Amino acid sequence: MNIKDLKPKTGTGCYRIADSDELVVMEHFGGIPAGRVRPLDHGIIIICTAGVAQFEYDGLTIQLSKNDLFLFMAHSVVENFMSSADFDCRELWFSRGEMWNMNLRVKNSLADLFPLKSNPKVALSDADVKMFDSYFQQLCYHMRNSSQLLYAEITHSIVGTFLLEVLSVMRRSNKKLKDDNIINNSGLHGKKLADRFVQLVEQSDGRIRRVDEFAKMLNVTPKYLSKLLMDTMNRKPSVMVAFFTLKAIENRLRYTDMTMQQIADDLHFANASFFGKYFKEHTGMTPMEYRTKYHQHKKKKNND
């Protein structure tokens, strides 16, 4: 697939702990490279500080303006990025491994971010803007002063609280997310297993669709995995597997010229007929109808 990996920048205004890309803070970021891009290993918190931008995010049209916060999830695809000349934003890049180094794991997990994939943007209040500005100032200060005693530990602690604030603000501003709160009663071990399940499903890229196969990878029973996901995410594992499978199919229908048979083979369906039936059962249209509709919509938007 013609999708470029998006990686954190280096240079002036970009701060890391040592030379690691696990955690990166950028004071200024003027935009996303042309073409189709995705971060494979990072989530990215983006706060627009000036100008406007528009782009396609996993098929959603996103418009950013000053004081908007956007959560860019790993493996999600962005294309058709356009912005005003004065567009600027701050960014915090965080890896899955970095998340587990933080105290955030005691209360929440990466799995908690799953519902935000379809609601990735929020307009910040004036109070929110001041709060996040304070966090960025603290992060930049501590990451610039690497000689400070315990600077890495201090930075991790600030980021952990920062991400909790992001989660709080995004849930507060979206009623569906508030009504769909994570139960969070399975303990640290359960949350870590839930995170690992999400990671395995993402990495399978639609090629594994049986819950029992994921349970086997995690050395648990399918029944236990189902209970675990309901406890930590209020989601059935089969629903999450279908979500990522459909995302993998849609990416191939949108961004490649692969035939239905080629997609079926690539995603390990028994045949093109079974692949088409699976997709129609979940979306209400055939793969070809989806591809045609997507490209017609894209052409119309480009002509407007």
Task: Describe the protein's architecture and organization.
With 304 residues, the protein is an alpha+beta fold. 47% of the residues lie in helices and 18% in strands. The strands form three sheets. The chain has a six-stranded antiparallel beta sheet with strand order 2-3-10-5-8-11. The protein has a three-stranded antiparallel beta sheet with strand order 7-6-9, with no helix packed on it. Strand 6 (52-57) and strand 7 (60-65) form a beta hairpin. Helix 5 packs across helix 7 (222-233) and helix 9 (260-266) packs across helix 10. Residues 102-107 and 178-185 have low confidence and may be disordered.
